[in-house]
Amino acid sequence: MRNQIKENSKVQANHRIKVQLDHKTFIVISHLSSLKVWRKRYPHAKVLMSA
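^ thats the sequence. predicted structure below, dont judge the formating
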């Protein structure tokens, strides 16, 4: 039981960032470094939500 609580807390610590790449494509990333990579491919990408 103790291990299960640790695993769940790790999952909740990850931040999720929702990004709109173009007018119909949405992705969810977990690191800002990933956003930099996607911005190179899609310069007009928009960050919609981060939690």
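The mean pLDDT is 81.
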